[in-house]
Amino acid sequence: MTGVLADRSTWTVSENEWDPRQANYFETVFTVGNGRLGTRGSMEERHIGALPGTFLAGVYDAYDAPVTDLVNAPDWLTTEVSVGGHRLDHDSLRTVEHHRSLDLRTGVLHRDTVFVLPTGHRVRLQTLRFASMTDRDLCGLRIVVTLLDHDGSVTIGTGVDAHCRNLEGLPVYPDGTVFDHRRKWDKWARSTHLRATDHGFVGDIGYIECHTIDSAVDIAYAQRIDEDTPPSRRRLHQHHEYIGCEVDFDHVPAECSITVDKIIGVATSRDPHADGRPRNRAVTTVERVESFTAALTASEAAWSELWEASDCEVVGDDRAALALRFAIYHLLIAANPDDATVNIGAKSLSGEGYRGHVFWDTEIMMLPFFLLTQPRTARALLGYRFHTLPGARAVSAENGTTGARYPWESADTGLEECPQFTPDGKNRFYTRDEELHVTADVAYAIVRYAEVTGETGYLYGEGAQVLFETARFWVDRCTPGGDHVSLLTVMGPDEFHSHVDNNAFTNRMVRWHLEQAVKTYKEIVTLDPARQVELADTIGVTADEVRRWERTAQVLVAPVDPDAGVIEQFDGYFDLQVVPITEFDHNDMPRYPVGRDHFTCEDTSLLKQPDVVMLMFMMPDLYSLPTRRANYEFYEPRTVHKSSLSPSIHAIVGLQVGDPEKAERYFARSAYVDLDNNQGNTEEGMHIASAGGTWQIATHGFGGLLATGGQLRFAPALPSSWDRLRFTVQWRGRRVHADLGHTDAEFRLVGVGPPEIIRVWGQPVTLTDGDTVGVTATPSASG
C-alpha cells in the first residue's frame, strides 16, 4: 500500500514515518468524523503544504464562488506546542520517530512523534482525537508532551481558527506543469464563505461565531481546556477569527508528561430540531462533558454498536479484511441518521473534491450498505431527496418540463450545481443538461428501501410524492414517434458520449420507474384510500394522470428480455469506431489510448464506466443469465474505468455471469483505490462511492447476496485466498447473520417474528429466531 502499513490487526491503518510528500494523502485517509462533521487528518501544528479541513454536513455557501461549495468550516485542531522556546513541528525540527494510527474500531486517531531540539534533547508529542458518535456536536483532542531526557519549560496553545477558505481553482499553466508538494495549494485561488461575527469567553469556555455569507447559516464553536497538572500561567486569547487558550509549565522534569485535553462543541442554525442561539448550544455541549475520558468512552461504546451491525469480516486475507473495514469506517462517518436534510457528497466529509456535491453515487453505490446494515441512516439519506423536492421541481421547470427532475450535482437546495465548463474553460460539461437518469435512480432507491424494510408507510407518504412528481417529469420529457416514445438528447452513466438518443440504461430505468409509480398508486388506492385523498390534495395526482404514466411505460423504447442478446447502449452505438484498450498502469488500471481523453472519445466505442452492464447490475431479475453474460463480455473490454464506481460493478456482474478471475482484479481496484491511492488523487478526499461498492462486492458479489423478490438469497463464491466471509444484514426489521465458506454456510436470524425462508445456493432454508442453521453446497446447487 502506498505509504500505508497495516498492522497485524485488521482494524488499524498506520503511518510509520514522516514523509511530507504523503502528508495530504494521510490527511484524507485519517479523517475522523461522525456524519455530522468530518475533520481531515492534518497535523495539529500544521506543516508547509498542509491541506486541513473540517466540513459540516449541509453547510454550503455560494458566495465568492461560481457554484456552491461545502464550506471549509472553522478549524478546531489548531495547536502550537513549544519546549524551551522551540516550536514542535516537522518543518522546524528534526523528526526521529513518527507514528500515527487510525483505530477503525473506535474512530480514534493516535499520533506519537519524537522531535530533536537544537540542543540535542528529545521531546515526545502525542495526540489523540475523535469526533463523538454519542454526541454528534462534540469533538475531543488530547495533547501529551513528554521531555524525554531533560528538564525544561513547555507551552501549549490551542484554539479554534475561523480564518478558513475553500480552494477555488488552479490558474491555467502550461501543460505538464507540476508544483512541489510544499507549494501546490498556494497556487490555487481561494473562496471566502465565512464571516466571523462574535467571539469571547463564558468563564473558561471560549466561543466563536461565524456566518456563511450567502446561505446565511450561523456556526458556533465552543472550547474548554482541561490540564492534568496545574499550569504556571493560563492565558485566554481572542480576536475576530480566533479564540484560544495558552498554558505555560515552567518546570517540567525529565520523563514527566503534561496532558492537556480540549473539548469542542459545535452548533449551527441549520441543525434539525434545535432551538436557541448556536453559541449557547455549543457552550452547553462543552459544559455537559464530565471529562475527555468519559466522552471518549461513550463514543467508543457507540462505535461498538455500529460495528456489531455493520462489520464485514474476511477470514484468511488480512489485507482484504482491512480494506473492507476501512471502507465501512468511512461510510459510517459520512452519514448522519439524525438529519434527513443532508446527504453524502462524492468525497464524503473528507475533502473539497467535487465541492461536496451529491450525485447518484449515494442511491446506487452507498445506500445498499446503509439499507442493509443501518436502515435508520438509509431513511435519513432518502429524506434528503424529499427535502430537496422543491429544488427538483425548480430544475424541471427551468428546463421546460413539469414535475420534478433531480439535478446531476446537488447541494443544500436541490438546484443544479454542476459547473458548465471545465476550470480552463475549454470543454463543456453536458452532464448537468443530459444525465437525467439520476431522477430514476432516486426512485429506484425509494422502492428498494420499501422492499428491504417493509415500511409501506414511507412508500405511501414521502416516497410516493417523489415517485409521482418525478413520473410527471419523465412523461413530459419523452418524445412521441409513431407507435412508441423516445428519450432524446441524453447521457447515460458512460459520460464519454453526450447528445445520444434512447440510452438503454436510462430508458429501461425510466420504464421501470413509471411502472413502480403506477403500482404504488394502485396499492394506495386499495390499501390506504385516505392517503390517496391526501396525495390528491398535496400534489394533485389523479387516476387519469396515472393511466398516462402506464401508457408511456408500455410504449417507451427499452430493452427487454428474453433473448435480448447484446443490447445497443444507445441508438448508433454499434456504428462507432472500435478503439482497443492495450495499455495498463502500475495499478492495473487501463490507460487512455494515445490521443484520447475524457472529451475525445465521442466517436469511439470506449466507455468511461458501465452503462448497459450497470443495468444488468441494478436489474438482475429482469435479464436472463445469458443476456447478462453476453452484455458483460461485450462491454467489459471496452470500459476504461475512469470512474471509481466502475470496478465494483464489473466485479459483481462478473461473478454473477461466471468470471471470478476478473472479479478479484476488480475487487482490488475498488478496495484499494484509497489505501493504495491508485488513482493518484486521494489527497482531494475519499472515493466514498468506491467504499460502498467495495462492501457490495464482498456481500453481493462474493457473498452472492440478493435482496429482491421479497426474499434473501445467498450464493457464496469466495476468492481462494479467503477462508470465510461473515456479515450481518437487516431484513424487514430483523437481523440475519451470515457466516459463509466455500462449500458451507451458517445463518442465524435475530428478532421476534415468524420463520424466514431464505435461499442458499438455490436451496430453501428456514430460519427461526435465535437458531443457527447450517447449509452445505451440493454439486448441482446454483444461485
Automatic annotation (TrEMBL):
<dbReference type="InterPro" id="IPR005194">
    <property type="entry name" value="Glyco_hydro_65_C"/>
</dbReference>
<dbReference type="Pfam" id="PF03636">
    <property type="entry name" value="Glyco_hydro_65N"/>
</dbReference>
<protein>
    <submittedName>
        <fullName>Kojibiose phosphorylase</fullName>
    </submittedName>
</protein>
<feature type="binding site">
    <location>
        <begin position="608"/>
        <end position="609"/>
    </location>
    <ligand>
        <name>substrate</name>
    </ligand>
</feature>
<dbReference type="GO" id="GO:0016757">
    <property type="term" value="F:glycosyltransferase activity"/>
</dbReference>
<feature type="active site" description="Proton donor">
    <location>
        <position position="495"/>
    </location>
</feature>
<dbReference type="Pfam" id="PF03633">
    <property type="entry name" value="Glyco_hydro_65C"/>
</dbReference>
<dbReference type="InterPro" id="IPR005195">
    <property type="entry name" value="Glyco_hydro_65_M"/>
</dbReference>
<dbReference type="InterPro" id="IPR011013">
    <property type="entry name" value="Gal_mutarotase_sf_dom"/>
</dbReference>
<keyword id="KW-0326">Glycosidase</keyword>
<dbReference type="InterPro" id="IPR037018">
    <property type="entry name" value="GH65_N"/>
</dbReference>
<dbReference type="InterPro" id="IPR008928">
    <property type="entry name" value="6-hairpin_glycosidase_sf"/>
</dbReference>
<keyword id="KW-0328">Glycosyltransferase</keyword>
<feature type="domain" description="Glycoside hydrolase family 65 central catalytic">
    <location>
        <begin position="325"/>
        <end position="696"/>
    </location>
</feature>
<comment type="similarity">
    <text>Belongs to the glycosyl hydrolase 65 family.</text>
</comment>
<dbReference type="InterPro" id="IPR017045">
    <property type="entry name" value="Malt_Pase/Glycosyl_Hdrlase"/>
</dbReference>
<dbReference type="GO" id="GO:0030246">
    <property type="term" value="F:carbohydrate binding"/>
</dbReference>
<feature type="domain" description="Glycoside hydrolase family 65 C-terminal">
    <location>
        <begin position="709"/>
        <end position="767"/>
    </location>
</feature>
<dbReference type="InterPro" id="IPR012341">
    <property type="entry name" value="6hp_glycosidase-like_sf"/>
</dbReference>
<feature type="domain" description="Glycoside hydrolase family 65 N-terminal">
    <location>
        <begin position="15"/>
        <end position="270"/>
    </location>
</feature>
<dbReference type="GO" id="GO:0004553">
    <property type="term" value="F:hydrolase activity, hydrolyzing O-glycosyl compounds"/>
</dbReference>
<keyword id="KW-0378">Hydrolase</keyword>
<feature type="binding site">
    <location>
        <begin position="360"/>
        <end position="361"/>
    </location>
    <ligand>
        <name>substrate</name>
    </ligand>
</feature>
<dbReference type="GO" id="GO:0005975">
    <property type="term" value="P:carbohydrate metabolic process"/>
</dbReference>
<dbReference type="Pfam" id="PF03632">
    <property type="entry name" value="Glyco_hydro_65m"/>
</dbReference>
<dbReference type="InterPro" id="IPR005196">
    <property type="entry name" value="Glyco_hydro_65_N"/>
</dbReference>
<keyword id="KW-0808">Transferase</keyword>
